[in-house]
Queue: 2 jobs
Job 1
Amino acid sequence: MTTSPATHLPPDHPLSRGLTSESALLNQYRGSRTSTGAAAKPERRPVWFMRQAGRSLPEYRKLREGTSMLDSCLNPELASEITLQPVRRHDVDAAIFFSDIVIPLRLAGVGVEIKPGVGPVLDAPVRTAADVAALPELDDAAFAPITEAIERTTAELGRVPLIGFAGAPFTLAAYMVEGRPSRDHLGPRAMMHADPQTWNALAAWAADVSGRFMRAQLMAGASAAQLFDSWAGSLGRADYQQHVLPHSAAAFSYVSGLGPADGAPAPLVHFGTGTSEILDLLKTAGADVIGVDYRLDLTEATRRLGPQTPLQGNIDPAYLPAEWPVLEAHIRQVVAAGSAAAGHVLNLGHGVPPETDPEVLTRVVELIHSIGP
Ligand SMILES: Cc1c2[nH]c(c1CCC(=O)O)Cc1[nH]c(c(CCC(=O)O)c1C)Cc1[nH]c(c(CCC(=O)O)c1C)Cc1[nH]c(c(C)c1CCC(=O)O)C2
């Protein structure tokens, strides 16, 4: 398995066309709180939501009717339309590409489904050295439907940046070892100690497919990428450092420095839940921006990471059904806590819960934009 060196993005890529200087989101990701463009006018405070494209939107549920989750992701027209829905409705400052962390598995030929209300389920779990050795190779040509969906999306988005993503090796491998979602991820954590060689081979395979997935999205026109290590919070520091961090760094190496020939590289974001105790380690994997879950105050995150690290987060999704004044006070507190960091992009501290009233999300965006830079 080889990691490919970073290359330049195509000349007609949104970043090559000067999207950065127009985008409050990309400026915050780069740690510059005000525009570096000639106008240098104050910008609105950027916000987007993890899982903004999905079940909280009636227009999403309607469009998805009769098509399975992964088939929807691989239908360029559908994936593009679903990506655009929350941008139109909420006026968020970025689109997140509608796809899933297990899409590279499906494209490599691994049998996987997303079971409604359950999550990713594999035909056969990957538990032995022979299972790992039998994993298929992923050919970059398989990303054709992803590339087409992204090209369609960026053509519609204009100046709104598109964020690509992938699952981090631990989170992806956790689904592969367990074969389905699990609470404590004992399978992959046990493999690290019982059979470290097999663990390393599996995590390296996962890093390769996730790295390629992120790279394909950036090459096709995404302006930033986020690595989701949703379940890294189940790991102690030593396990994270020894058995996981090198593989996350390998995934990032596929996209590190990837940018236009004459411009700054696409910003990279790293997010996990329950990662307060490993936040400093997370940062060393190669991202520019750290996504913080709802458990840690952003002032404390800045203390742990230093003021130079731009942050993303961390409105607690548990506040979304609360009375508006309660939610508003919480958001104002998050905005204030984020002000010590070099950059701050508002987001939730985890994904939008499916039962969320979409009108509340629109109101949250309006409030954040009204607060100003
Ligand atoms: C762990 C993980 C997965 N997928 C993802 C993660 C990391 C983020 C996180 O921690 O939430 C990432 C993901 N999945 C999806 C997106 C699309 C973009 C967006 O954030 O709006 C993104 C970024 C769509 C999706 N991925 C999924 C849905 C729901 C599918 C449906 O409509 O039924 C969506 C919109 C399915 C999915 N896929 C996965 C799970 C756990 C589930 C939920 C299962 C369920 O409760 O039904 C795996």
Job 2
Amino acid sequence: MLANSYDIAVLPGDGIGVEVMDATLDLLRVVDQRYGVGLSFSVQRAGAFAYKETGTDLSDETFERTARADAILLGAMGWPGIRHADGTELSPQITLRQRLNLYGGVRPIRAIPGVPLPLSDPRAAKIDFVILRESTEGLFFSKDQGMVSSDWAEETLRLTRPTTERLARMAFRLADHRAGQSGRPGRVTLVDKANVFRAFAWMRTVFAKVAESYPHVGHDAHYVDAMALDLVRRPWDFDVLPMENMFGDILSDLGAGLIGGMGFAPSADLGDTHGLFQPSHGTAPDIAGKGIANPTACFLSAAMMLEWLSVRGGGQRLADAALGIRAAVDAAFMDGLRTADVGGSAGTVQVTRAVITALRSAP
Ligand SMILES: NC(=O)c1ccc[n+]([C@@H]2O[C@H](COP(=O)([O-])OP(=O)(O)OC[C@H]3O[C@@H](n4cnc5c(N)ncnc54)[C@H](O)[C@@H]3O)[C@@H](O)[C@H]2O)c1
Ligand SMILES: CC(C)[C@H](C(=O)O)[C@@H](O)C(=O)O
Ligand SMILES: [Mg+2]
């Protein structure tokens, strides 16, 4: 699909989602001038404040428009006080994942050179792994269908063969791709709780079968509780970590903590036909409106979007643009940029200016 222009559906959402998206669109316009990738943006309203004003957090019209785009860029959605009648928070992100079958939640955790890290071990600078969060089933399968009585409450975890096999193939392809780029051997480590639940023992058999088709990629499994320990103790040892939905939700925030916080953690929700890109963080009500949200995670999510469009046949310019964003982010932080979340004073606008300057001055 070598196209001259790409239609990007943009859903800024709520709180700092809007702030980091404004910054990302400023960056992408400069990227477009420099690399000539031909991006056009159609901004759509969705999220908690849309719900408050219109009664829906994701209208059918917005969904259809979003589903027709070449790629989707999302800020963050949700707001603590804005709830459904049953008290649950709104989550149109989950609706999008389920309706577009975005089963592969790719959440890279990479230490950005120059950003202060919480672990003092010098090996922390080498942290570079990917959480691959299954994003349509697992424990989220029973969302809105859990049974609650006055005496008990029950939710259901479901893993299906088609999704588990697709997730496994995505994990091995990703490890293979990363090995090709880094020169290090690839390794897929399934994160589960197979010592207690049959569902995870079964998941191991599905992964072991898929692994046979990738003999050059290493493969093992790790219990989720031990993985929580080892991600703090030796995170530099891991490569690609596929896991069930809820485990991935939790461990991806832990991973973000290892590299400076949520403001540095990008993500992509990928299916076979659609790709949605968003920072892993939420709407951050505690800092919204203060101008200090770190837009780096959203910048890096936009880079993932350009790379995905490139891999789907969009050509080298998109790949170069993705690399250009990553290099500019690294250069800006190496040059001393310090965001408020890592003890500095640079706000959203300063970070955006610094990254744009680095992009413009790159050879
Ligand atoms: N993908 C999404 O849209 C998404 C993800 C997570 C949470 N949420 C929603 O967001 C709302 C707030 O959730 P929460 O507070 O648990 O999680 P959060 O990710 O919004 O915030 C957690 C902490 O990280 C900080 N933080 C997050 N992003 C940051 C950034 N870019 N720069 C600097 N600091 C940042 C916040 O200030 C806060 O201290 C809830 O309604 C939740 O449901 C949405
Ligand atoms: C806001 C919430 C519905 C969402 C999730 O649980 O998936 C978020 O925590 C995330 O990690 O993207
Ligand atoms: Mg989460």
